[in-house]
Specification:
about 525 residues, alpha+beta, Immunoglobulin-like, 3 domains, 7-stranded mixed β-sheet, 6-stranded mixed β-sheet, 29 strands, about 20% helix, globular
Length: about 525
């Protein structure tokens, strides 16, 4: 029998000044649920779940594996900077200059020569994982000094490379120790711990541990990506303010599979250790979904029942699915009725098609999915996981777009793009079509964007053009989004291509044959 769930008022909490803590206890189902979920993961995973107040281990899997940290090394940099601020040997107003050697091919958002305050550099390093700011801070603070501080606090093994040929490494247990001391407000000092927690709460990369938690859940965390390594670690706060530390470090798996695992871990821990168990995980699109304004969108999402009981349509009050839509300003503009779910056994998943009625006004909308029952309505208020996706609504498209372009581009240099427009409507009134583009990094940040003039579509079934595309002044692997524009609005669906932006080629001082050079827009901050 499924337990009766009492509805409580959902209140978005900040960190409480005082709270009565009841020691968290991992229910019998949590270890088996986590074991089951991790067993289906194709790569390696080091997981630690720990009571943030008592330090009691609630679950662990390969906790002592030494793993390349990716951007989790920035936690050590943050710690050392805050230690020195606490000791009054550094001030938040001190200047930090980003040198050429600090700028990486991927993940650096400030150019060499940029000067930031210490406060701004720490904010960039943590909230958007800026590599340039992080490496400038590490250079100034010193890897050896950072390692000394970590060792003194017994946060080990956690070392930053002092030799450029070595890697930054840490164990999941060491990262959990860092966050447990932070949650206990004993990392350096209470004041320094509070400052670090507040900064980590402002994290803007929230596609992992927080992704399927109820809206308003407070999570102070840091992510890490390095191709073969995908991590997230931090403190998740329950509705009563109880903190639980969750560390998930993965390696040797596709990034999307790792992200899906980490989302599931966050959802399972929250539902079992911090809230009433209505255990479900969702697989929803990570990129914006295109839809036509005023027309229904059919979207399939995957639901997995993670226990403790089978879901049956013939239950007295079966679980149902609901969705709610908010516009860019957060105003609720639509919601569904209760959608009956099929029979789903424990550990089983189904692909569930949903019809979403789109508003007549074009724009970006956030659609959130969650479980409900008829007795209580939406169950997010009692900790049931939710999942959200972005729907990008547009006026009916005018053309179908085709683009052929090399997968290897060169910064500040033109490459030939063959652009084909196929009419989907009468284009007699369209005087100009443009090729819009966006360059997006691995964290889904738009790094640079712009538009290129192409011309009006010619009579006939389709028309093709040769367009010079000048890659922006960045380097590394990116997603290139391309779409037709007319009069400032989208005229086609988005095409996504994976590209590598490399150093410029040389042509003896001359531009690339047949292509005129044109300036590219500056990267967005």
């Amino acid at each position: 029998m499924r337990r009766t769930i009492s509805v409580v008022l959902a209140i978005a909490l900040s960190l409480p000044a005082t709270t009565t803590h009841v020691a968290l206890a991992a229910p019998a189902s949590l270890p088996s649920l986590l074991d089951s979920r991790i067993s289906s993961f194709s790569g390696g995973a080091g997981i630690v779940v720990q009571d943030g107040v008592t330090g009691k281990i609630l679950y662990q899997h390969d906790p002592d594996e030494e793993v390349i940290t990716a951007s989790l090394y920035k936690l050590g940099v943050l710690l050392e900077a805050e230690r020195r601020v606490d000791a009054a040997t550094l001030r938040y107003t001190d200047s930090i200059t980003i040198e050429p050697e600090d700028v990486t091919e991927d993940g650096s958002y400030e150019s060499a020569g940029t000067t930031l305050t210490l406060d701004d550099a720490l904010e960039q390093m943590i909230t958007v994982s800026d590599n340039g700011a992080a490496l400038a801070l590490q250079r100034i603070l010193g890897a050896h000094e950072i390692n000394t501080t970590l060792a003194a606090l017994k946060i080990q093994p956690f070392t930053l490379a002092e030799d450029p040929n070595d890697d930054n490494v840490a164990s999941p247990r060491a990262i959990a120790t860092f966050f447990t001391l932070l949650a206990q407000r004993t990392l350096v000092s209470r004041a320094a711990s509070d400052r670090m927690l507040q900064r980590l709460e402002r994290q803007e990369i929230n596609d992992r541990l927080p992704a399927q938690l109820p809206p308003g859940t407070v999570v102070a965390h840091k992510t890490g990506n390095l191709g073969f390594a995908t991590h997230d670690a931090g403190v998740i706060y329950g509705k009563a303010g109880d903190p639980v530390v969750v560390v998930a470090m993965t390696w040797d798996s596709p990034e999307d599979e790792a992200i899906d695992l980490i989302q599931s871990i966050g959802s399972l821990v929250y539902a079992n250790a911090l809230a009433s168990p209505t255990n479900v995980t969702y697989a929803v699109p990570q990129q914006p979904v295109s839809a036509t304004a005023g027309r229904p969108l059919v979207q399939t999402i995957r639901l997995t029942n993670l226990g403790p009981n089978d879901w049956r349509l013939n239950d007295p009050d079966p679980f149902t699915l609901m969705w709610e839509m908010a516009d860019a300003g957060g105003k609720i503009v639509g919601r569904s009725a209760h959608l009956p779910l099929w029979d789903i056994g424990v550990g089983k998943a189904v692909d569930y098609p949903i019809v979403i009625d789109m508003p007549a006004t074009a724009g970006d909308y956030k659609v959130t999915f969650g479980l409900a029952d008829r007795a209580n309505g939406a169950l997010a208020s009692v900790g049931a996981p939710t999942a959200s996706m972005t729907v990008r609504s547009h006026a009916p498209f005018l053309v179908s777009l085709g683009v052929s372009i090399s997968s290897v581009l060169h910064r500040d240099e033109a490459s030939a793009a063959i652009v084909t427009f196929t009419p989907l409507a009468d284009l007699a009134a369209v005087t100009q079509l443009q090729l819009g583009w966006r360059v997006i990094d691995r964290t889904s940040r738009v790094i640079s964007e712009g538009a290129l003039p192409v011309g009006a579509a010619k009579p006939g079934p389709s028309s093709s053009y040769l367009v010079p595309f000048v890659a922006p002044a960045i380097r590394g692997p990116f997603t290139l989004e391309l779409y037709a524009l007319t009069e400032g609005r989208a005229a086609s669906a988005v095409i996504r291509k994976t590209v590598e932006i490399d150093a410029p080629r040389t042509y003896g001082g001359d531009p690339a044959p047949g292509l005129s050079s044109r300036p590219s827009p500056s990267p967005r901050p």
